[in-house]
Design a protein that fits this description.
Blueprint (H helix, E strand, L loop, with lengths): L6 E2 L10 H7 L1 H4 L10 H21 L6 E4 L2 H15 L6 E5 L4 H11 L4 E5 L9 H7 L4 E5 L13 H11 L2 E5 L11 H4 L3 E5 L10 E5 L14 H4 L7 H16 L1 H22 L3 E3 L10 E6 L4 H10 L2 E2 L15 H5 L4 H5 L1 E5 L6 H28 L2
Helix pairs in contact: 1-10, 3-10, 4-5, 11-15, 12-15
C-alpha cells in the first residue's frame, strides 16, 4: 500500500490563508485596532485600511470601490441581495427566478420567502448543469423583480452563461444577482460586462480569512438593508466592521487579481491530468457536469458500484481531504440536489466524489492521490463484489 501523507483537495470548500494575507492582517489585531467609525487618528487609520481593502476587492470583479459592501459571509451577501430586492420592490411585484441547483444560501432564502407569499420559479438545468437563457427569459413576468443564478456551481463547477442572462435581465428591466463565491479569483469576472446588479463573494474561497464576505451592489440601485443599527458601510450594513478580516480579504483579492492567469493555468493543468489518469486507470468512472464550461480546478467523478462515503473515509485515512458534495451540507444523508438536478440516478450520486485543486496543490500530490484512489476503489469494489455473491 502507498505510504500516507497529507493532501488537501477540497479548495472549493475553503482555502488556507496565504502567508502574505496573514502578515497584512496581524497588525490590525494588536496594534492598529481602532474603530473605523471613530474620528481620532487610529480610528481614521482603520478607516483608510477599509478603503484600501474595498478598492482591492472591487478591482478583482471589475466594480468601483463605492459599490462594495462588506458582510460576514457569502451567505449573508446572498440573503441580503434576495431579501433586499424583494422588500424594496414589493410595490412592483413578488416574483423571483432562480435555478434548482443553487447554493443553499440562495435556495433556502427563496423557500423562506415562498412561505411568506413570494412567487418563485425554479428553472431546470441540463445534464451538463447549464441553465438555458431562453428559459430564463420565458419565465419573466410583469411581476418579476429578481433573477438570481449562481456564476459557478460549488459541486460540479459549471460556469453559467451569466453575461447572456444579464442581457436578458436588462432588456426586461429585472434586477439580476449572481452568487459569485466560486467565481471570483477562479475565473475572469467583470460585473459590468456580465450585466449583474449584485454579486456575492467570500474571502475564504480566495486564500483569505473566514468570517468576511462582500456584496457588490450596482451604484444607484434601489435596495433595502438587511442589518439595521449604526451607519457603517455607507449606512447600508450596520455593525462594527471585521477590520482584520476585511484587510485580509483585500490582500487576498489583490493577490487573486495579480495571479489569476497563473492560478487558472496551474489548477487546470493538474485537473486535466488527474481526470485523464483516473479514466485510464480506473474502470466504470464518469465525469459529472460539463468539461467545457467548468471551474478550472473542479473535478466531480462518479464511481460505479461503490459509495462515495466509503471512498472519502479510506482516502481520509491516507491523509487525503476530498468531498462527497457541498461542504455546507456534507452531513446530509439525502442525495445532492445538484447531482439530482442534472438527472443522475441515486446510485451514481452516492458514488460521487468532488476533488478541487488549488494554488498549493502539486503534481506529487496528485500522483499520490491517484495511487491511493486506484487502490481504494479496487478494495471497495472487491468488498462489494464479495457481498453481492454472499447475498448481503
Amino acid at each position: 500500500m502507498t505510504e500516507s501523507r497529507n493532501v488537501y483537495l477540497d479548495y472549493s470548500a475553503t482555502t488556507p490563508v496565504k502567508e502574505d494575507v496573514l502578515k497584512e492582517m496581524l497588525p490590525w489585531f494588536l496594534e492598529n485596532f481602532g474603530n473605523p467609525s471613530s474620528i481620532y487618528t487610529c480610528g481614521q487609520k482603520s478607516k483608510d485600511a477599509l478603503s484600501l481593502a474595498r478598492r482591492r476587492v472591487a478591482k478583482l470583479i471589475g466594480a468601483t470601490a463605492e459599490e462594495i459592501f462588506f458582510t460576514s459571509t457569502g451567505t449573508e451577501a446572498d440573503n441580503w441581495a434576495i431579501f433586499g430586492v424583494v422588500d424594496a420592490l414589493r410595490d412592483k411585484g413578488n416574483h423571483i427566478i432562480t435555478t434548482v441547483f443553487e447554493h443553499h444560501a440562495v435556495l433556502h432564502a427563496c423557500q423562506f420567502l415562498q412561505q411568506r407569499g413570494v412567487d418563485v420559479t425554479y428553472l431546470p438545468v441540463n445534464s451538463q448543469g447549464l441553465v438555458d437563457p431562453a428559459e430564463v427569459e420565458a419565465a419573466i413576468t410583469d411581476k418579476t423583480v429578481l433573477i438570481t443564478i449562481m456564476a459557478v456551481n460549488n459541486e460540479i463547477g459549471t460556469v453559467q452563461p451569466i453575461s447572456k442572462i444579464g442581457e436578458i435581465a436588462k432588456k426586461h428591466g429585472v434586477l439580476f444577482h449572481t452568487d459569485g463565491v466560486q467565481a471570483a479569483g477562479s475565473i475572469p469576472v467583470d460585473v459590468k460586462k456580465w450585466g449583474v446588479d449584485m454579486m456575492s463573494i467570500s474571502a475564504h474561497k480566495i486564500y483569505g480569512p473566514k468570517g468576511v464576505g462582500a456584496l457588490y451592489i450596482r451604484k444607484g440601485l434601489r435596495f433595502s438593508n438587511l442589518m439595521h443599527g449604526g451607519g457603517q458601510e455607507n449606512k447600508r450594513r450596520a455593525g462594527t466592521e471585521n477590520l482584520a478580516g476585511i484587510v485580509g480579504f483585500g490582500k487576498a483579492a489583490e493577490l487573486a487579481h495579480e495571479n489569476l492567469e497563473e492560478h487558472i493555468q496551474h489548477v487546470k493543468t493538474l485537473r486535466d491530468y488527474f481526470i485523464e489518469e483516473v479514466l485510464q486507470r480506473i474502470p466504470e468512472v464518469s465525469i459529472n457536469g460539463s468539461l467545457e464550461h467548468r471551474h478550472p480546478g473542479n473535478i466531480n467523478l462518479a464511481f460505479n458500484f461503490i459509495e462515495g462515503e466509503g471512498i472519502l473515509i479510506l482516502l481520509d485515512e491516507k491523509g487525503i481531504s476530498v468531498s462527497t458534495g457541498s461542504a455546507c451540507n456534507s452531513e446530509a444523508l439525502t442525495p445532492s440536489h445538484v447531482l439530482s438536478s442534472i438527472g443522475l440516478p441515486v446510485e451514481r450520486i452516492h458514488g460521487s466524489i468532488r476533488f478541487t485543486m488549488g494554488d498549493f496543490t502539486t503534481r506529487d500530490d496528485v500522483d499520490y492521490v491517484l495511487n491511493v484512489l486506484e487502490e481504494t476503489v479496487k478494495k471497495l469494489r472487491d468488498i462489494s463484489s464479495v457481498n453481492e455473491k454472499k447475498g448481503w
